[in-house]
Amino acid sequence: MTKKVALLAVAALILAGCGSSGGTDGTSTTSDTNTSGGAATTAAVTPTTITLMTSQGWIKDSEYDLADRFEEQTGIHVEYQVVPADQYAALLTTKLNSGEVADIWMAQADKFTIVSSLDVANNAVDLSAEEWVGRFDDSAQAQVSVDGKVYGLMVWDVSDSFSYIYNATIFNELGLTVPTTFEEFKAVCAALLAAGVVPIYEPVADGWHHPLDFFNVAHAYNASDPNLVTELNNNETTLADHPIFQQMIEQMKEVYDAGYWGEYAFSDEYSGLNQALADGRYAMAVMNMTAVQEILDLGGTYSSPTDFGVFPSPYVDNTVIADTPGGPARFIYPKSPNVDAAKQYLAFLAEPDNLQYGIDQGYFNALPFSGLDMNYPSWMATAIDQYKPGTDTVYQNDVSYLNAQWMDFAADLSAYLLGDMDSATVIANLDRRRTEQAEAAGDPAWQ
Which has the closest alpha carbon to 11: 109, 111, 84, 61? Predict the structure, then answer.
């Protein structure tokens, strides 16, 4: 892997800007390559650099390999500007507002946020005519589309979702079974703690991870009121009107207060999650199912996928792993002088052989494009059959104006866990920010 990645401090980005770069000699570049989605060629390409702004954790190693190949074929170098996850959303907003964003910028896409917060119709290039759009699955495509126009490329495993990964070996040794209710979950946590094992690795320090359970128990919310999503999106009710949301975070605090997240949750980081489970120091964590192989690759105590298992988040007695149709997506800034080169790069990433490379290397089990060979291990296929009936979608992708306030909610949730805010205020703040965003977006349901 070439050294093309820079972990950028926010101050440096704001001062220096991460705007589009021109050619390496300071001039704009021209190219006669095919930018409509076909394979890139090397004919008459002036070497240049395109910049890609991303949050930490969104780019897999397989993409860095592909970027090297892309540069070999085209002479176009991809410079990744990687921003800490807890700072990314605010910085992206600043950059889009100032017009100094990278040639390609990434965002956690959903069909609501791309309109209300990202304004992709003005901040992204219409990619509808690109060849790869015809192979892009409808459900994922909808999360990056507005008024029938496709604005983003999502190379992300949307078949996988966050769930609880647990150490099956430890469970078996202690005679524990998979919890199916919140009370059973607490009992399992108590038994683990009594045995000297920290029940849950919850990395609060990153700022984004600890809200996952709140959004993942969508099935329980839907079961409490089948019309709830529709009524929320039509501004006919609020989250505060439904006690289940306050109950949800109160159960989270109950788990935290009991010490089940361990002594260092507020300083623990996501980067240490795999190792914590590989060492057997922690028994459970909220992760993508694909993380099991990443844990095994560390070469710790455990070597077989059967050493680990999967179950849905059991808060508010949830029993389903919800689908996640959205994910980190790439958008091209329309004022970039390197739009054609950026289109080439997205087209290159979306070529079937290059998509398949990410699957074959184990970074994805599946991708939302037709014509690929998916790679589900048998245990994961079983978990999907058992826990993912396809009946529910994670709440941030189903309810408008939630995804965009993820980090604000995370801050409120942290304050609540520490005793600096009450549960009613946390939920009221979600409703207040939904209203502010809806009114700013001119949503007719809020007029």
Answer: 84
Q: How many CB atoms lie under 10 A from the CB of residue 1?
A: 9
On the question of pLDDT at 112 being above 90, the answer is no
Residue 308 · residue 292 · CB < 8 Å: yes
Domains of the chain: 5-157+326-360 (3.40.190.10), 162-321+387-446 (3.40.190.10)
C-alpha distances out from residue 415 to 264, 421, 422, Å = 16, 6, 8
Mean pLDDT (whole number) for 370-384? 89
> Where does residue 155 rank: exposed (0-12), middle (13-18), buried (19+ CB within 10 A)?
buried
Nearest-CA neighbor of 388 among 324, 305, 317? 324
Kind of pairing between the strands at 104-109 and 5-7: unpaired
Q: Burial level of 34, CB count in 10 A (0-12/13-18/19+)?
A: middle
Tokens, residue 119: 């304004």
Question: How high is the pLDDT of residue 171?
Answer: 98
Q: Other CB atoms closer than 10 Å to residue 236's CB: what's the count?
A: 12
